[in-house]
# Entry
Amino acid sequence: MSPGAADRAWWRDAVFYQVYVRSFADSDGDGVGDIPGITSRLPHLTSLGVDALWLTPFYTSPQHDHGYDVANYRDVDPRFGTLADVDDLLVKAHDLGIRVIVDLVPNHTSDEHEWFRSALAAGPGSPERDRYVFRDSPDLPNNWHSVFGGPAWEQVEDGQWYLHLFDRTQPDLNWRNPEIPAMFEDVLRFWLDRGVDGFRVDVAHGLVKEEGLPDQRFTEDEETRVATSFIDPGPMDHEPMWDQPEVHDIYRSWHNVLASYRGDRMAVAEAWTNDAESLARYVRPDEMQQAFNFHWLTAPWSAAAFTKVITESFAAVRPVGASPTWVLGNHDVVRPATRYGGGQVGLARARAATMAMLALPGSCYIYQGEELGLEEVDVAREHWQDPRALRTGEPGRDGCRVPLPWSGDRAPYGFGPSTGQPWIPQPDDWADLSVAAQEADAGSTLMFYRELLRVRRTFATTAGDDVELLDLGTEAFGDDVLAFRRGELTVMVNCGNKAVVLPDAAEVLASSVHVVDELPPDAAVWLR
Ligand code: GLC
Ligand code: MG
# Structure
């Protein structure tokens, strides 16, 4: 550790591993991943070398949005285990030096939450209805769209409408009602008291809506883009449901709750805002510690695009003193290997992009299965489960949520003790991608990730926070190479179609393919 590294908060340069609980490991053979399954697979995470886990929601839930529809924020869904199982996971992970953050879903509850049930029972004008966004209206109260397609309003029997920015089964809470912030502070304390290291805050930009709920105004082509708005929300002329100034009051009060606990507890915002500046507001010194930086997810395979992502990401967080985060995939987007073209080329590029991300100052988020080089699966229509897919009729997010292959040559590939397919069927050609198969293959993506994370530890806290972009557009590397220096480390990613010569006398610390003195296309190298 360098001087100063000891008092640097752990999350600043942590590698987080996102566990999509339903799809990581199944302990009881019901074909659905669960908490004891995660605990049993902690050795995979220690040998991978990650610093922290982010667990997607495991709370009591009817699972219409696979846990992002919470019916009880203070309990564990029996499908996933018990509170005692979570306590056990926290203890065992902490014993191994792995921190654990959990998902917090404050924008909406499930329609099976007792608050929503009592709101329906109590009727129009009641204090129970005021916890949600109910309106009287002869027709739709405004023109807002659900992120999952269709109108954002549902009518109930007595004629009132309630707002749901996501699925109909996910009614939005009314954060202007003081009962709501009070309840969520209790929820934060409930999990902090049990020992979680922090929270991933779902839809952090959505909690407060503009007074009066005015219509949203679309830019010209926006109408046609609504279905993809999950990844690319803007630009709309006016978005009264997102990124309202009052959300920041909430995060300032959560900051104080986190700060009242020992051990650098943290929160990371999932906020799909229109620009880097608005995202940076979530990580001001008295708000959250991190915000997901989604720019890499929308960038094509291009050195110029990556350079822009890096430059803009630093430009946004530096003025507020925050450190950046880097994200290549998650449970809502197409897997990187597929996004970059699929097949051998897509995988090579995903590995190379990972090297750029892991070399940058800040914290990285790895989505489960990226370390196996998994591709998006083409899930047959009859197996679709994603509410967005079901509402829009377009393939949704099921393809990146297929349960992990651990071993063996057929489904469920060691995912659990059952025979046959888990909750989303696995492809029949995954045998070579299993953890066991890749452990036996020195050239596998898994062994590559382990090596990268090992080497990363040698510089992550000592190489400094300054990044110098190198020679882009000059003869040295060419337009197609992303190249940057961080301390003694030089990183090159070849996004072009010609091999480029490596600098003389450079020592190769790691590379995405075997390199001698040239870097082939779709490859990356760390040099010293
Ligand atoms: C977040 C989650 C996504 C979920 C949505 C609604 O964006 O990542 O999976 O569907 O919020 O809670
Ligand atoms: Mg199970």
Q: What stands out?
A: The pocket of magnesium ion (ligand 2) is lined by residues 26-28, 30, 32, 34 (CB under 6 Å). Confidence is low (pLDDT under 50) at residues 224-229. The chain is about 25% helix and 15% strand.
